[in-house]
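Translate structure to sequence.
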C-alpha cells in the first residue's frame, strides 16, 4: 500500500505531488462511502482525534468532526473560548494536557503562522493543520483540487484564477502550491494592495482586471475579503471593491466559454460574488463542502497508517 511521505499534514509546501495524488485518489473512494446508505467505516476505530481550535470555524471544524465520525474514530473537541488558554496557559501545555488523555492525532487551527510546525517538533501525535494564521490551509486546497478534477478532469495545463484578498488568505497560498504541483497554470487577480510581493518568486502572474481573469481561466476560485485580518484599510469601501472586483451572473453568462466558480466560504454575498452568481450553475460551492468530508477522511486515514 502507498503511504504519505510525512507523519503530519502541516502544509502543501511540505508534501510531494505523489502525496497529493494519493490523498485525492483515496478521497474518491471515501466519497463513494459517504454516498452509501450506511456512511460509516471502521477504519479508525481505535484512534482518538482531538480537534483543537484556537480560532472560530464552522465548515472546517464540522467537516473534520464528521470525517472522524464516518471513520469511527473517537473525537474530542477543544475551543480556546472558555478554556485555560484564557488563564494564560501556553499552547504546548494545552496540547500536552490533551495528549495525556491518550490522544493519537491533533487537528489544529491557530491564528499564529507556523503554530502546527512548532508543535510537530515537540509532540508524538500526528498533526493536521486546519489553518495557521495567513499561512496555509492544506485540506482546503486539497478539496478544491479534488472538486476541480471532478468538474474538468486532469488539472495539468488548466488555467486557474484566484480572485480576491490574496494577501490575508491561507487558502490562496495552499492552492498555489497544490495546483502548481499538479501542473496547473495559476494566476491571481485583486486590488494591488491585496496582492503580496512574494508571488513573483512563486512564478504566479497577476491579472489586473476581473474581466480579464474570467476570460482567461477555466476555474475562478473566488476568495472572501477578510476584514477581520485587516488592521489597515486596503481599499476605500466594500461597495467600491464590489464594483471593480465583484462577480455577477451576467458577467459569467457573457463569457464565450463555460467556467467553474468556486469559493471556500463563508461568502460575503454582494461583495465578491452576487447571489445569482453564487447560486448559478457555474458554481460548485456546495460540492466543495461535500468533498471536504471525503478529502479529510482520506487525510486522517492515511496519516493514521503512519503510526
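Result:
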Amino acid at each position: 500500500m502507498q503511504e504519505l511521505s510525512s507523519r503530519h499534514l502541516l502544509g502543501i509546501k511540505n508534501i510531494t505531488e505523489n502525496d497529493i495524488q494519493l490523498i485525492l485518489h483515496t478521497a474518491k473512494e471515501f466519497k463513494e462511502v459517504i454516498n452509501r446508505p450506511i456512511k460509516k467505516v471502521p477504519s479508525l476505530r481505535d484512534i482518538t482525534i482531538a480537534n483543537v481550535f484556537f480560532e472560530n470555524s464552522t465548515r472546517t471544524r464540522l467537516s473534520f468532526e464528521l470525517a472522524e465520525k464516518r471513520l469511527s474514530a473517537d473525537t474530542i473537541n477543544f475551543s480556546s473560548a472558555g478554556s485555560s488558554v484564557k488563564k494564560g496557559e501556553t499552547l504546548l501545555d494545552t496540547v500536552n494536557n490533551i495528549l495525556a488523555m491518550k490522544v493519537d492525532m491533533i487537528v489544529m487551527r491557530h491564528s499564529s503562522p507556523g503554530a502546527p510546525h512548532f508543535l510537530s517538533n515537540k509532540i508524538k501525535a500526528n498533526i493536521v493543520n486546519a489553518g495557521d494564521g495567513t499561512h496555509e490551509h492544506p485540506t482546503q486546497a486539497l478539496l478544491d483540487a479534488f472538486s476541480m478534477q471532478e468538474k474538468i478532469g486532469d488539472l495539468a495545463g488548466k488555467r486557474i484564477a484566484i480572485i480576491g484578498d490574496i494577501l490575508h488568505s491561507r487558502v490562496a497560498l495552499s492552492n498555489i502550491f497544490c495546483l502548481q504541483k499538479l501542473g496547473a497554470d495559476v494566476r491571481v487577480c485583486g486590488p494591488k494592495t491585496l496582492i503580496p510581493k512574494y508571488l513573483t518568486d512563486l512564478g504566479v502572474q497577476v491579472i489586473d482586471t476581473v474581466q480579464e481573469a474570467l476570460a482567461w481561466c477555466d476555474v475562478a476560485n473566488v476568495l472572501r475579503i477578510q476584514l477581520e485580518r485587516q488592521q489597515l484599510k486596503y481599499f476605500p469601501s466594500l461597495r467600491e471593491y464590489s464594483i471593480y472586483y465583484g462577480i455577477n451572473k451576467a458577467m459569467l453568462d457573457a463569457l464565450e466559454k463555460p467556467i467553474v466558480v468556486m469559493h471556500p466560504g463563508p461568502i460575503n454575498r454582494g461583495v465578491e460574488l452576487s447571489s445569482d452568481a453564487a447560486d448559478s450553475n457555474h458554481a460548485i460551492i456546495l460540492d466543495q463542502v461535500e468533498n471536504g468530508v471525503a478529502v479529510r477522511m482520506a487525510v486522517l486515514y492515511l496519516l493514521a497508517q503512519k503510526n
